[in-house]
Amino acid sequence: MGNHSDGVQAKSSAVVTSQEESKEKFPDPGLPHHAPRLTDVDAKHAKTAERQVVLLFVISILGALLFWFAYFGIKIGGNYYDVLNPEANNTLRLQNLLMGLGIAFSMFGIGIGIVHWARTLMPDHEMEESRHAISAEADRADAQEIVETILDESGIKRRPLLRNTLIGSVILAPLTFVTLLRDLGPNDPSVLKYTLWDEGVRLVRDPSGTPIKAADVTIGSAYHVLPENLNSLTHENGYIEEKAKAVVLLMRLDPNDLKVSAGRENWNVDGIVAYSKVCTHVGCPIALYEQRTHHLLCPCHQSTFDATDECKVVFGPAGHALPQLPIAVDSEGYLVAQSDFHEPVGPGYWERGKHVEEMKSEA
Amino acid sequence: MSHTSVQKDYQAKTNTGKIANYLDQRVGMSGIIKEFGRKIFPDHWSFMFGEVALYSLVILILSGTFLTLWFNPSMAPTAYDGSYVPMKGTEMSVAYASALDISFDIRGGLLLRQIHHWAALLFMLALTIHMLRVFFTGAFRRPRELNWLVGCALLIVGILAGFTGYSLPDDVLSGNGLRIIDGIFKAIPLVGTYLSLFFFGGEFPGTLLISRLYAMHIMVIPAILLLLVAVHMFMVVLHKHTQYPGPGRREDNVVGFPVGPVYAAKAGGFFFIVFGIIAFLASTFTINAIWNYGPYDPSPVQAGTQPDWYVGFGDGALRLWPGVWPFHWEFNFLGGTWVLSVFLPFALMAGSVMMAMIFWPWIERWVTKDNREHHLLDRPRNAPFRTGVGVAGIIGYGSLMVAASSDLIATHFHVSLNDVAYVLRFMFVFGPLIGFLITYRFCLALQRKDRELVLHGIESGQVVQLPHGEFIEVHKPLDEYRRYKLVAFESPEVIPAQPNKKGKISLLEKTRGGLSKIWFQDRVAPVTPAELEAAHHAHHDAVEGTDSSAQIEK
């Protein structure tokens, strides 16, 4: 063994011993004697073990039969989770359960059977094998010489121009394929700036799509809101992408509770405020509104925003407040947007600061 | 070389012999059989986890292949027309509709989905435990450092495999998972926005992602996984398996069972047992009931959403990092917005756990200056510092993983969500240190117990009265096999900073020396025969522990 393995303690300040030092080590007593198993010495036990293994294999066969019984024998079909016909679910469940158990037993039977066989009836003498060096010293020298010869014969060392152009071409050739990845997607981050909200766009309920009268929004209530023009989009021209950015949460608070900063005085309608529902942390929809504290909570990572204080972050990992949607009432009394958001919605990104500045100057 | 064919061929007499002969003349089978037929593999329950991981992977590939026969990875919209009533007529992606069809309209399809998902959970679990086993026993030391890296790569690629698969059904849960990935991409300084736009083929969620992830999930990632497994197995055979120290087990031998028949039977049988366990779980515990969640829609989300457990540490890291405390972690600087509240949890928290894992073999080698080959494993207690570090890692990783369920903890135990986060933040920062110290001391205590056992034997429970009236309990000495197990280990010592060739001690070397001191200054040496001899002479003085020979003091 190694150089620190002698058990010498004197060199270590941590170990105090009054004992005389000894470099001696206990000798390796060698492998313990093999104790025969019952199945080794008693034919009756061996026979019993054999029968047990056979039984396990039979269980496996029965398991496979159970599977086929469930697959062919249990008639499923029709409609599931139908309130008028709850029976269909039970049959489906039963079939899956029995097929699964059938497979489980067919596998367990084989597995436990073979392991039991190996443990009881196959020899349990531990055997010994020597380890060899992974590579002999002489081999290494030979290999090195071969590599040198190869390099020498190829001439790569003697002809540096050849070598350098080869290196250059081998680096550049794969880059052509890397370039092909360029069109994986567009590279204009400014798409992140805008949403479907615009001046005069009505706020409609999600998912019914009905517009909301300001008078219907009572104090303490909250609505999931979409822009009315979202419905003109189809999946082909960006419905889901626009929805992912435009979702809004609408609440009515007591106007006296609201803290309103300069420039946002007319963004709410008598305490009705609208905020982006996309969490500014990593983008989950903020689905939980606690009426009593006026806190909005993101269920994914628990970022908490204070609706009375312009949805500033009060707890959790989100990095900035939820963007507010300026709203007003149209001539028919329905809530409409005054404009788009004044900053990008959703999680932060490298260009966000730049975009905020740009949007400020545009507004 | 042609003269071999003219030689009179060996004529086999039995059928087995004839088949072997045929194969041997074509593919050189006898060489392979001679090499592997009776190759020795050591047997220990802790060597089983790698096998579980391997078998789970086989089951993943089998069940996954079945699923590809029916799954359609398209994000095109379709109106659902299957037999799940609550969603009839609902507009959804083709991918989600085909996942529902697999669950309801293909006999056994749900079972296959469950087997596939359960096998994935088990694969990652077995892989993790296997790596912990390798870490705690020091099996990563020379010559196996590269195989440790292969293991780390398997773990990371395994996470990618799980994540890409989790996203395929295109239900609300997987869509929200992708939304989080979008946010994480965007937080990467400088290139993040582009990465996100490239990944989704435009703005989130786009129409391309599922088919892109599908190609990764069923082709690229499994190919990498299989390649890594092949390299891993090749190296296992090349190095031969490690073994625990004990009588007859030395650095230069392998003690165990031959591949044929015992080891092959046990390992082969074990495959079926693992398959049985997965089939049993799959048929009795439903996970990821995608029909309850509905098709992906950016507006709703369910409270209490959980990632698969092996992604938990990342999600937990995201939850624990404060966004605006003590200052805003998202700020504009050098012409860009630094979203550190999202970037740092990955780069720093999850990243540091991963980096420490990847580089550990070289860190340990540098500090201990131990560059010898090791084929005998350490009992974890005999490497107190490493064991302490391992436990610290588990606590750090564990607090992140637990944090991924912080909302469920709060609702189930009726505690404040904020308090759970505070406690877990504390746990992540200080837990590892506390865990390290306790484990380190615990290992030293266990080593002292081993010394005690060797020096004074086992309490026999037999109390005798001596002629002069004293009562003593008879201690039975250990037999030499048991004793050898407790004394055959190395106890490395502090190696102070060494001057280099110029006679100077570099700062790096000083650091190493300092670390070595922390590492090894408290150590318990194995009992030597002389000490045992002395203990026998001292007799029951030593039994009572009054003799300082048995005491290791600071």
UniProtKB/TrEMBL annotation, chain A:
Keyword Aminoacyl-tRNA synthetase part of the UniProt annotation: no
Q: Please give an example of a GO cellular component term from this record.
A: plasma membrane
The record places domain Rieske at 267-336
The alphabetized UniProt keywords are: 2Fe-2S, Cell membrane, Disulfide bond, Electron transport, Iron, Iron-sulfur, Membrane, Metal-binding, Oxidoreductase, Respiratory chain, Transmembrane, Transmembrane helix, Transport
| Cited InterPro entries | QcrA_N, Rieske_2Fe-2S, Rieske_2Fe-2S_sf, Rieske_Fe-S_prot
Stretches of Polar residues bias are at 10-19
Q: Where in the cell is it found?
A: Cell membrane
Transferase: present as a keyword of the record?
A: no
Give the membrane topology. Multi-pass membrane protein
Q: What are the recorded GO MF terms, alphabetically?
A: 2 iron, 2 sulfur cluster binding; metal ion binding; monooxygenase activity; oxidoreductase activity, acting on paired donors, with incorporation or reduction of molecular oxygen
Segments spanning the bilayer are 53-74, 94-118
UniProt superkingdom? Bacteria
Region of interest (Disordered), ranges: 1-37
Pfam assignment, any one: Rieske
Record function comment:
Iron-sulfur subunit of the cytochrome bc1 complex, an essential component of the respiratory electron transport chain required for ATP synthesis. The bc1 complex catalyzes the oxidation of menaquinol and the reduction of cytochrome c in the respiratory chain. The bc1 complex operates through a Q-cycle mechanism that couples electron transfer to generation of the proton gradient that drives ATP synthesis.
- Protein family (similarity comment): Belongs to the Rieske iron-sulfur protein family.
Would you tell me the protein name for this molecule? Cytochrome bc1 complex Rieske iron-sulfur subunit
TrEMBL record, chain B:
Q: Where does the record say this protein resides?
A: Cell membrane
Annotated keywords: Cell membrane, Electron transport, Heme, Iron, Membrane, Metal-binding, Respiratory chain, Translocase, Transmembrane, Transmembrane helix, Transport
Q: Which GO terms describe its biological process?
A: respiratory electron transport chain
By its UniProt entry, which SUPFAM superfamilies does this protein fall under? Answer: Transmembrane di-heme cytochromes
Broad enzyme group: translocase
Question: Looking at the keywords, is Metal-binding present?
Answer: yes
Enzyme nomenclature, EC number: 7.1.1.8
Q: How does it sit in the membrane?
A: Multi-pass membrane protein
Instruction: Report the GO terms under cellular component.
Output: plasma membrane
Q: Kindly give the InterPro entries that the UniProt entry links to this protein.
A: Cyt_b/b6_N, Cytb/b6-like_sf, Di-haem_cyt_TM
What transmembrane ranges does the database entry give? 52-71, 117-136, 148-168, 214-238, 270-291, 338-363, 383-402, 422-443
Cytochrome b/b6 N-terminal region profile domain residues are 19-245
Name the cofactor(s): heme
Q: Name one GO molecular function term.
A: quinol-cytochrome-c reductase activity
Signal peptide (from-to): none
Question: Catalyses which reaction?
Answer: a quinol + 2 Fe(III)-[cytochrome c](out) = a quinone + 2 Fe(II)-[cytochrome c](out) + 2 H(+)(out)
Specify whether Protein transport is a keyword of the entry: no
Protein name (database record): Cytochrome bc1 complex cytochrome b subunit
